[in-house]
Amino acid sequence: MLLTFFKNRKRRKLLRELRNTVRGTLAADDDILEDKTKTELSLLKSELDQVRLADTDDAALAEFDRRLDRILPRHGFAHSMRAFLDVLVVACSVAGGIRALYIQPFKIPTSSMQPTLFGIHYIDRQLAEPHLGPVTRAVMPLQARRAKLTVEEDGFLSGDYRMRNSYFIFTDSVFNIGNRTYALPGDLLQNIRRYLAKTGDYYERGETFADGWLSTGDHVFVERLSIHFRDIRRGDVIVFTTEGLSSPVQPLSGFYYIKRLAGLPGDTLKIENNILMIRPKGESAFRPAYEFSEKFNKLYSFKGGYQGHRADGLLAPGQEITVPDNHYFVLGDNTNHSLDARMIGFIPRKNIIGLAVAIFWPVSRRWGIVDRLPPLDTPTVLPDDPRFQPTAMSMQ
């Protein structure tokens, strides 16, 4: 009896699979099936619908299976490849729909939002050690390239350097100190030199030029949906396109920019003592930005690399501007090294893509929800050379 039960179960399963395959193919591929194939499948479907398992033996079910295989081959490379491509197309369509409608990944390209979000940058091994968690230490070799160099001969750092590709995907800088040639990962000036504690050009034999890692920069998810259902707020970290925008200072470096929203339509803005002052539409007095959003507090803490807002461009010392309707004003958190609305002007509402919500790579102190952390508890020490970054930037 047990053997009969399992045999009947197997027969029911085969009949169910035959019916589902025929019905599914007719429904899903109706517009691409040849008329002959469609006719044969329709006939087979009618016969299968009339089958009563009690009156049908194994040979009859096997014949139905062979007929279906002749009409619609279900084995071999072609069938397997078609099934794989069907799954791939559906997966890509779902991923594309999610990306277009809800969430999209971006890579931070520059230092303009540091230390909230980092582009490619140098991490000093010794300075960063107290601030690295065990997980970050463990995965550092996977998410950053070692940047270590000890000077072999006294001499001056050359004023120029050349870039080369290594291992087809990495970029190195080749440069001289004295008569010796060295190489470090990334762009020497943009990614490493500006983060070094030493700003001078003369090095002695045995001196450490660099001992750390070159981070790949933060990769973030940007949520695109909520901005269509709620107002954008001061302090939000937003991504926008540069379509229709330009700068008299330098060419724009990309189509997507990420900055912090500082001014809403109707706001009058100015910068005093490195603090953004805001007078909303209809009000008579200016108030500091941190009274409108607590997210600005850390920018004025002068800790962990934060250094307030620099008065420049449209917000040069003594200047006041009013944000026009349907436009916004954005600033980088690192305004000493940021090309933002002070130079490129007001951002049209239509250019705003979404809100930065999470850092998914690398695994650093910042990993997780964007903008959730207080600054590192270390003073922001500004370098003598304005081309360089505060030392706190190389700790994280």
β-strand percent reads 15-25%
Element string (H = helix, E = strand): HHHHEEHHEEEEEHEEEEEEEEEEHEEE
Helix content: 25-40%
pLDDT under 50 segments (min length 5)?
none
How many discrete domains? 3
CATH homologous superfamily designation of the largest domain: Umud Fragment, subunit A
Mean pLDDT: 89
Name given to the CATH architecture of the largest domain:
Ribbon
Tell me the number of strands. 20
Number of H- or I-type helical stretches: 8
The CATH topology label of the largest domain is: Umud Fragment, subunit A
Q: Gyration radius, to the nearest Å?
A: 31 Å
Q: What distinguishing features does this structure have?
A:
single chain; elongated; 26% helix; 396 residues; Umud Fragment, subunit A; alpha+beta; four-stranded antiparallel β-sheet; eight-stranded antiparallel β-sheet; 3 domains
Structure, explained:
The chain has 3 domains: 2-74; 134-215, no CATH class; 219-361, Ribbon (Umud Fragment, subunit A), CATH 2.10.109. The chain has helices spanning 2-28, 35-49, 58-71, 77-101, 125-128, 134-143, 188-192, 341-344; strands at 103-107, 121-124, 144-150, 155-156, 162-166, 170-177, 180-185, 202-203, 208-215, 219-223, 237-241, 256-263, 268-272, 275-279, 287-288, 321-322, 327-331, 347-348, 352-361, 368-369. With 396 residues, it is α+β, with helices and mostly antiparallel strands. The model has no long low-confidence stretch (mean pLDDT 89). The chain is built from 8 helices and 20 strands. The strands form 5 sheets. Strands 1, 10, 11, 12, 17, 18, 19 and 20 form an 8-stranded antiparallel β-sheet that branches.
